[in-house]
What does this fold into?
Amino acid sequence: MKFKKLVAVLSTVMLIGAMTVGCAKPAETTAPAASTEEAAPAPAAEAEAKPEEAPKNEKLVVGFAQIGQESGWRDAETWSILNTAEEIGVDLKFSDGQQKQENQIKAIRTFIQQEVDVIGVAPVVETGWETVFKEAKDAGIPIVLVDRRAAVPEDLYAGFIGSDFILEGQSAAKEMATLLGNKGNIVELQGTVGASAATDRMTGFTDELKNYPDMKILASQTGDFTRAKGKEVMEAFLKAYPGEINGVYAHNDDMALGAIEAIKDAGLKPGTDIKVVSIDGVKGIFEAMAAGEANVTVECNPLLGPQFFKAAQDLKDGKTIEKWIKSDEGIFRQETAKDDLPNRKY
Ligand code: GZL
It folds into this structure.
């Protein structure tokens, strides 16, 4: 909850800032007109700019179209974007899409009108971006994909900053196999339908599972990356497969935490009767592992603010960036969760 409050405060500050910027008259009409007798040459006027504040055109201006606030991971990513912008003095225009693609597309069009230097977007789903990305390209504004991919031609975005979701899924399957002794039935809580994070985590897990013929996925269903839906779907799975479920694989920790509630409500021991493997590495899953109620989390780093704004500044300076800037992450297990917990940043 603390993160959510911090995000709410920071995003309000940013949004007010953006609106002020957005509503203010363009700089040239707000500067006091020099009278003819005082007409000073342009250089003198520039010399008056406060030393600590770079002239407007040098300040990095960025628009960021965020997905929403569906999970603890998302709040951590938003905090990282807002906090880094605050720290390095970026003019950030931030939009919360409330998990709707049309809101993100509207925000991107607003950023184009505001003539920002760079647009960052975390695409809620992979498809439906080509038209608006072309509009940004035609306006000469580069797009950086952050944390999720978009199914568009490579020339429509400068680069992708994020994890290898297929590898995350493969790692989760290997961890589940170890926990079940290479044998058992699994249910899968999938992320948002159409999101690259969900599609690829499913692909990685199911591909790796082919190496374990005695392990089977009984059922898969989306929990939309939220704790509430994860609990709801797990309740249905427990009713549909009484006594048959040995493990639950959740595409994110929030859904796993919901599943843990459902397992306990059914009178079973999560982490023992049903093994729990998920992805993200948020604090809540470390607390569950420390309590013996979850077994493994595959980390997916949300603190992408520094990498994102470095890429944005490089693009503003006319440099190119790597097409895929990978975030590096680890795998964390129940055995070390108590010691890991104090070091977790999100
Ligand atoms: C992953 C990110 C996913 C997280 C979820 O990069 O897109 O979205 O795994 C979040 O927690 O909702």
Observations:
- The mean pLDDT is 89.
